[in-house]
């Protein structure tokens, strides 16, 4: 194994709620996790800040322009080190894009029925960031 094979890939995600407490989720269009639901996000590109990556990834995957705020938390999933930030929407129109097969606002009842990426529900619960209605 080469040293580069052991390095974690830095990623970001945007935890975003609408005015009614619904959570923004995307259905992954590609692996890892094709077909599963997750918060939008992806890899941080070389020379990019976390906040710039969150803005870019959410625009690419959801069509929404967001303002990233505080760090909600960090998780490691396989070789991915994911930093999730709380975000506010400042514009755009919700539509799936880039590697997202679908994008939608979900309430607590829908969230509970979706096929989610591994650990997402437990992580958001631990951070107090589940949909509120």
Summarize the structure.
Its cofactor is Mg(2+). This is NUDIX hydrolase. The protein is α+β, with helices and mostly antiparallel strands.
Features:
133 residues; alpha+beta; Nucleoside Triphosphate Pyrophosphohydrolase; 4-stranded mixed beta sheet; 3-stranded antiparallel beta sheet; 3 helices
The amount of helix comes to 10-25%
Order of strands in the sheet with most strands: 4-1-6-5
Helix and strand composition category: alpha+beta
What Rg, in angstroms, do the CA atoms define? Answer: 14 Å
Description of the molecule:
This protein is an alpha+beta fold and 133 residues long. The chain contains 3 helices and 7 strands; from the N terminus they run ββββαβββαα. The radius of gyration is 14 Å and the shape is globular.
What topology does this entry show?
Layout: E1 9-16, E2 23-28, E3 37-38, E4 41-43, H1 50-62, E5 64-77, E6 80-92, E7 100-106, H2 108-113, H3 120-126
Parallel strand pairs: 1-6
Antiparallel strand pairs: 1-4, 2-3, 2-7, 5-6
């Amino acid at each position: 194994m080469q040293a580069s094979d052991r390095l974690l890939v830095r990623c970001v995600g945007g935890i975003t709620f609408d005015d009614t407490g619904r959570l923004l989720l995307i259905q992954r269009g590609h692996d890892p996790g094709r077909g599963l639901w997750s918060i939008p996000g992806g890899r941080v590109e070389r020379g990019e800040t976390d906040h710039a990556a969150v803005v870019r990834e959410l625009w690419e995957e959801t069509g929404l322009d967001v303002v990233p705020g505080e760090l909600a938390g960090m998780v490691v999933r396989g070789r991915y080190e994911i930093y999730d930030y709380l975000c506010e929407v400042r514009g755009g129109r919700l539509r799936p894009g880039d590697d997202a097969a679908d994008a939608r606002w979900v309430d607590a009842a829908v969230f509970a029925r979706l096929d989610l990426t591994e650990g997402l529900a437990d992580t958001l619960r631990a951070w107090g960031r589940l949909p509120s209605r």
